[in-house]
Amino acid sequence: MPPMLDVSEDVRAEIGDEEAERLLAGENAPGSYDCTSCRTPGDSAQERTSTVLFVGEETAVLAFAHASCIPSQVVQVAEAELQGAVRSITGERSGSPQGAPAPSAPMAPAPEPAPGQAVLGITSGLILVNGELHPALVVEPTAPIARPGTLGNGGDDFLTLLIEQGFAPVHDVNQPPVHLPGWSVLLAMGQLHAVLQPGTGGGSPVAWWQAHQPLQVADSWRTTANKTHTVLVYAAPVGSIGQQPREDLLRDALEKAAASGLLVAAAMPLAGTS
């Protein structure tokens, strides 16, 4: 019996028709595997399995994932990150791993901004909404955001710009935000890679936020995200949330921002295309 593999058109274009057909026929199929998204075992003979091609500047690695976790797709990653994955797969570990286990609400590492340039920081955490735990991302820039094409006048257009994109103001954190069509959160290889938005003119999604280095999320966050297949994305202006060391403090900060009219949010599927 051939494996239950999904090979997207993007993956097929990268690996070629011949290799794709060999995979679908079971010649090069993995059988059992560790899902590249949730890191739990999978079996391509028993369940739908996605082929995920990680592509760097010089290296490409074909991995497999539960189709319920992430669709078949091509994911662009930094060459150094991909080489590290190859070493871990082949057992050729050298030096210390990139990053330590993340706390429950880690702040994404951001590149050093140029003078006057804002960087979007992202915090992940589990948020209790209407009695249920949901995986959440909280976005807060490091400086006021001016509307593109303007020099800025000392104001902050961050929330206005997001509302124009479809984010909704949050008045009560206990109410889940509505889904925002075309947006998604990309979690691959057990790490947060990007928040994607629709491309212009109906083109492929593009990164609205992209990790300077893939962000390690807590196991509890990843497990919950893979169960719900949805991530709640909150956003607030600079200085509204801050780096909170615990999820209860993060929740308190969200409630204060909402009460002040300084919080917007949207629900996004845990999936995406590069």
Characterize the structure shown.
With 274 residues, the protein is α+β, with helices and mostly antiparallel strands. Helix 1 (9-15) packs across helix 2. The chain is built from 6 helices and 14 strands. A hairpin with a 4-residue loop joins strand 4 and strand 5 (60-66). Residues 88-116 have low confidence and may be disordered. The chain folds into 2 domains: 5-90, no CATH class; 120-269, no CATH class. The chain has a 5-stranded mixed β-sheet with strand order 7-8-13-14-9, with helices on both faces. Strands 1, 4, 5 and 6 form a 4-stranded mixed β-sheet that branches.
Summed up:
With 274 residues, the chain is an alpha+beta fold. It has two domains: 86 residues, no CATH class; 150 residues, no CATH class. 22% of the residues lie in helices and 30% in strands.
